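Quick one:
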Amino acid sequence: MKKILFVSFLSITLVSSLCAYELNGNLSVKWTGFKTEKKLPVSGTFNNIKLDIKSSINLSDFLKSSNVIIKTNSLESKNPERNNNIVSTLFALASADIIEGNISDVNEEEKSLILNVTMNEVTNPVRMDYIIENGNIIASGGIDILDFSMQKSYMAFEKKCADLHENKSFSDVDIEFVIPYK
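Output:
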């Protein structure tokens, strides 16, 4: 009887470890832009994020299986006027209805990854560092809006927000994502 219980326990443990990484909740995305000469941070997220990711026995394959689509008109900064200013200029004046992302490389030794970000029909690789903490993979990095051929829409955003930003906006944006897993 003891052997049967032990073999059963071992089998269950083995089977459960075959999918060591599996999505356990919703992907969260955070962006932080900057304004004024003091480079004050303004953060937000998006309300419409679709993640497709496959369970895997190893971290690299799990992350590289991910594909994300973000609807830019779902931008949320907890300020309706700011939401409108960003969406109506940065995204609406460019071909940036959606932002797409997928991870093409993971370096587990350096705890870094390459996120390919597509916005305004331009794809750029973005190096991000990550940590694993409390069942979450947390990655952070940065982009420059101008690297996505969005000069015209960025200039419209800068002009629209000139008074609010004390005539100083920045095109660099910090990005972060959190993938909960079990």
